[in-house]
Amino acid sequence: MFLESFWTSLPSTSLKFLVKCYKSQSWEYLLKVHEGKDKLQKLLRILTLLYKVNGKVKTPIAEKEFCIKNISLFLPPYERLRKWEVLLTEENAMCVSQLVDLFCHSPFLLDLDVKVQLFYTISFLKKQTFRDLWGGVLCLHFNMRRDHIIEDAFHCLSSVLDTDFKKEFQVTFFGETDRPGVLKKDFFLHLFDKLIEPDFGMFWCNETSTLLWFPTKASVEQGRYNFLGVLCGLAMNNYTTVHLPFPLALFKKLVGVKPTLKDLKELEPVIGKSLQEILDYSEDDIEDIMCSTFTVSWDGTDINLDPNGRDVPVNNENKEQFVDAYVDYVFNLSVKNLFEEFKEGFYKVCDAKVVGIFQPQELMEIMVGKEDYDWDTLKKNTLYGGQYHANHANIIMFWEVFDELTPEQKKAFLLFLTGCDRPPILGMQCIQMTIQVLNNFTQNHFPEALTCHNLLLLPIYSSKERLKIKLIEAINHNRGFWKI
User: Fold this and answer.
1) Catalytic residue among 67, 104, 205, 452
2) Is 104 a catalytic residue?
3) For the whole model, what pTM was predicted?
4) Which of 111, 167, 342, 483 is least enclosed, having the fewest CB within 10 Å?
């Protein structure tokens, strides 16, 4: 194509100028989309072509240059959706639907904030359709026994219609009083901790015991992986992150991106490194040095990557085929049925077209949280209630103690405060902690937390040492949950 070839030859400054011009025109037509939808679609196709060209040039422009600003103006703020502080109209629904149709094939034009807003707006609209005659929202409600959380969760999942998964999700535990949102976070936190335990037998664990993957042979009842997918979808649909220590490959597969050797290096570094060494070796004695054949061991079983397996040595001519076959077996062939179960369950809850706007890394972070711990931002955003203020002696002591905590203790504090040990996808700026005095406290009381409100109830202690002892014991025992 002449135009594509010509653009490839342009300097980056000219390419950047072209992108800016087409973005500006696109924004103008977005403001009057009912009149100029066809022209807008043509402009978006041109921007898509420019994005493709940018991937080929020697000095590409930054991907953020492609993002069309201000699209968030068409969408309600994330926090207002989460707190049910808005009521969306049919006109809102039509606008959001058009945005999805327009940008689902060119998500690089959307920044992360807009993608998150778009996902949760679509989710909110579906929840809003389930309303009773008096305008109240109909919920999917699970009533659980805490000591039978897995059994009860799977029983509840098997007894509802697929359409019910789109509803607002609520959880209660027998004999416990809920504060809005607390038990829901609690449910996902402790259910997933149980599901990923080695004794439960649902997953294969890597050699370093840091990441999980699907086993080659399931040892749990049929349908459990489908339910796991539903649970991941319910958590994501209801503003909750989960503890799911899977490699990026899982999230790649959910959005149709093919896993690579890089993903195997993440899952099993030793195997990944040895495969890379085979690819990098170029001498003629590769068969004698590497001593590898197309038969490999995975999950305790010898696997033939070629019909002739052991009779096919790896050499310079077929080494790329060998590595590709190894990666394909680990991430695709060996787990095909179990992954498809999981994927089917996940998309019973979440809209596949909308999930598709996320890059794999973005999807991973929206489901399990980020690892960007900006503690200074947490402190800066903190509010104080009652007699507390930033210069109160107990608050000064609290922050001194917090700064002395280890990185793992700080993560435990975040779990204690919010119900998750990772910041949400949009970062620590989305967490606004409020610190108030615990009513009727004594020096023996521990700090308490209301996770749904990110509220820390902090007794006034007589010394920094006592504050530190009580805070560490509280976060170690996760006293933010289930208090009488």
Assistant:
1) 452
2) no
3) 0.84
4) 483
